[in-house]
Amino acid sequence: MRDKILLTALAAAVVFAAAPQKAQAHGDVVTMKEAFTPGTIVVRTGERRLYYVTGFGGEAIRYPVGVGRIGKQWSGTSYISGKYRHPAWSPPPAVLHDSPHMSRLIPGGSPRNPMGVAAMTIGSGEYAIHGTNNPGSIGHFVSYGCIRMYNADITDLFSRVSVGTRVVVQ
């Protein structure tokens, strides 16, 4: 009898440990209409929302995001190629073209650094999912193609994904 109780307790512990953890910041747990493999990041540009798929039934954590401005948006399938805490930032040529007096390197942790507390590069590294130094930009079409999140949200997502995680931008 004692062994049965211990086995049942162990099984319950495994089930609860494997269950997705509640979002720690602005994320809501929702059910998506489309089916994606658990562990996939889905960005819906028009909605200005990022979904992290947690279950086979379409269960996902939904986060508000800032996305690319008109003419700066992109779509496709890629993967997380790197994860960085407090990254330094060098503005890409398109940003320097529009703001030629901008610093060529903004150190990580600087209040002027638009990457916020963490960044995850996508594919070749041209774009990233990252935090922000401008929380008022979340929910708008504001970037040069990157996906901006509240710093608390990128911290939460950062803890859930690994290099190699599939990213779908729609």
How does this model look, in words?
The chain has 170 residues and is of the alpha/beta class. The chain has a single domain (2-169), classed as L,D-transpeptidase catalytic domain-like (Beta Barrel). Helix content is 19%, strand content 29%. The chain has three helices and eleven strands; from the N terminus they run H-E-E-E-E-E-E-H-E-E-E-E-H-E. It has helices spanning 2-18, 93-98, 151-160, and strands at residues 28-31, 41-44, 49-53, 59-64, 67-68, 76-85, 118-122, 127-130, 141-143, 147-148, 166-169. Strands 1-4-3-2-11-6-7-8-10 form a nine-stranded mixed sheet, with helices on one face. A two-stranded parallel ribbon has the order 5-9. Strand 7 (118-122) and strand 8 (127-130) form a beta hairpin. The protein starts with a helix and ends with a strand.
Number of helices: 3
Which structural class do you get from the secondary structure elements? alpha/beta
List low-pLDDT spans: 4-20
How is the largest sheet built, in terms of strand order? 1-4-3-2-11-6-7-8-10
What letter string, H or E per element, gives the SSE order?
A: HEEEEEEHEEEEHE
Helix content: 10-25%
Q: How many individual β-strands?
A: 11
Q: In total, how many domains does the architecture comprise?
A: 1
CATH superfamily: L,D-transpeptidase catalytic domain-like
β-strand percent reads: 25-35%
- End-to-end distance, in Å? 54 Å
Output the radius of gyration: 18 Å
